[in-house]
Amino acid sequence: MPRSVKKVSKNVSILGTKELSKKISELSPELQTTTARILHGGAKKIGEDIKSSMALSPPSGKTYGSHTASSPGNPPRIDTTDLVNAVTTQPKQFSGNVKETLVGVFKGSGQEKKAIWLEFGTKHIAERPFARPAYLTNRADILKNVKRALKAELKKITK
After folding, report:
1. Partner of 75 for a Cys bridge, out of 31, 57, 91, 122, CB 3.0 to 4.6 A?
2. How many structural domains is the chain composed of?
3. What pLDDT, on the 0 to 100 scale, is given for residue 92?
């Protein structure tokens, strides 16, 4: 008797990105470029932190052959390098000259389902988050850098 297969799909959105992109598009071209550069650098740092969290995740879970997995709640440990190599940053054009940079495991990598299963868990696999912690660790610094750039631009304008 054939088993039924359930399609797994999960979209993750960060609230406020549409509003942020609208606000950025209203800035001067110089500040748009600066803000896009800062956000791109922040996305790259998040991607680097995702990869290093996987590399540094302790071998504290179950052992499968020669691989010891991470324990639930820790980032997934590197086994075949397929998942860690699938973590990328992708610049994307939107609204005029402003760009956004996406970071994650994208369709076409062959690892997107595994990434979702590990990040959010399944009925049989406990959560091993890697993207959310990297984002939360870096968001304050990214915002601080954007604020610094905005203040510097305002100083130029008000002189």
Report:
1. 57
2. 1
3. 75
User: Is there a domain that residue 4 lies in?
Assistant: no
Domain that holds residue 150: 29-154
The CA dihedral of 10, 16, 22, 23, to the nearest 10 degrees, is -150
Answer whether residue 13 is part of any domain. Answer: no
Task: State the CB neighbour count (10 A cutoff) for residue 109.
Answer: 16
Claim: this prediction has a pTM higher than 0.85: no
Structure tokens, 118: 């590990």
Residue 2: pLDDT band by 50, 70, 90 thresholds? very low
Q: Copy the structure tokens of residue 13.
A: 């959105």
Coil vs helix vs strand at 81: coil
Report the 10 Å Cβ neighbour count for 66: 6
State the amino acid at position 34 in one-letter form: T
